[in-house]
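Model it.
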Amino acid sequence: MTASVNDWQWLYRQLLDRWGVQHWWPAKTPFEVMVGAILTQNTAWSNVEKAIARLQAADLMGVEKILASNDANLESCLHPSGYYRVKARRLRALCAFLQEEGCAELPESLRERGALANLRRKLLQVHGVGEETADSILLYALQLPIMVVDAYTKRIASRLGWCTERVTYAELQRDIESALVPGDVAMRNELHALLVELGKNICRPRRPFCSQCPLRRRCAYGAGQERPGN
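Modeled.
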């Protein structure tokens, strides 16, 4: 890793100046955040919103309600999010975990069941919950200070020349965490949301809009795009 504390602080300031506070994660309740963290796997957020709307219309937005629902009803609600049978199993697994932890009625009370590291370890043992999903639940649903790393984050950092494309989730997370104020949930929330905004709309996988990027003056990839012949 080649990024320094000052690099990530600079990136955060540039993106915040450009787009401001993102008010992310869009959800009415902490449990809805948890559901969204499962459903957003391998799909666009617009599809997640459709699935969540169906769950709400079917009165299934609750731990016990999801566990008591039949497969056909639950899968029908999740259909817009894709891989709906897989996600139904994963959502049931998360709900079963919350029930076992005594958090069925108030899922956000999970944060009181142990230290962050222990909660993360438990979440990673739940079927279908990987690092990004676990950290999204910890940060956005439970308001615990941990940086979420996703494909946007890796793409942006590698294009800046701060890591290689083969960087692991843990390596990049540690690098970013070293630049952030310990315990600052709001900053981690905003930084992740701003990186998503940049990755979705400017730093795209193909044909990125480098000339519009607020990070272009320090971006190795962008400098290469501006050379004659590119």
